[in-house]
Amino acid sequence: METHSTASANSDSSKPAASGETFALLGGESELQRFVDAWKAGRLPRAEWTHAAHVAMAAYFAFDHAADATFAIMKAGILQHNTSVGTPNTEDNGYHETLTRFWAGEIGAFIRSGRFPSRWEAVRAAVAVFGGDRDRVRLFYSFDVVRDRRARREWVAPDRERHNCGDARSAFEKQQRVCRAAPASGSFPI
């Protein structure tokens, strides 16, 4: 669910979250809802549409939507966001079909495999596990799927053996200490 650019001056969405970066939308349920509302309304600044933000949105919708619905919501939302911030959707930039479907599936499987007491907790857990792991696609693709024009245009299935969500689940269990230690309000370091 990336908004990658092949240009060297990428927006923040093409960079991994820096260690210690503050991800304010996870400061509480109200901050998360404000972020979602801004994204849906096309008012989210481009700089806030990071990889971790993509993960958060996918988890937000996967909490109570089936896999196909989560993907459809993400696709429509990313296309709308790109239009609202002036990011062109071209062969080399903007919306990426394969990455959107891939991440909607990975994050959706993770959310559905857990027993999260709330949407906010599900989002926090997904960001803790996947927010800094934008290169995860390399486990599934033997080629540079990010820059592949066909993969940007249409779904390209992974060409490496698909791992199940178990490895993400193990990572989540290790990261639970981070989630428990994070403040209930304020900012959430990722």
What structural keywords apply?
single chain, disordered C terminus, two-stranded antiparallel ribbon, globular, mainly alpha, 190 residues
Description:
Helices cover 49% and strands 4% of the residues. The strands form two sheets. The chain has a two-stranded antiparallel sheet. Strands 2-4 form a two-stranded antiparallel ribbon. The chain is globular. It has one domain (21-189). By secondary structure, the protein is mainly alpha-helical.
Question: Taking Cα atoms only, what radius of gyration do you get, to the nearest Å?
Answer: 15 Å
Order of helices and strands: EEHHHEHHHHE
What gross morphology would you assign?
A: globular
List low-confidence stretches.
2-22, 169-190
- Order of adjacent strands in the largest pleated sheet: 1-3
Give the fraction of residues assigned to helices: 40-55%
Main sheet specs: 2 strands, antiparallel
Query: What structural class is derived from the secondary structure elements?
Result: mainly alpha
Q: Can you tell me the number of structural domains?
A: 1
pLDDT averaged residue by residue: 80
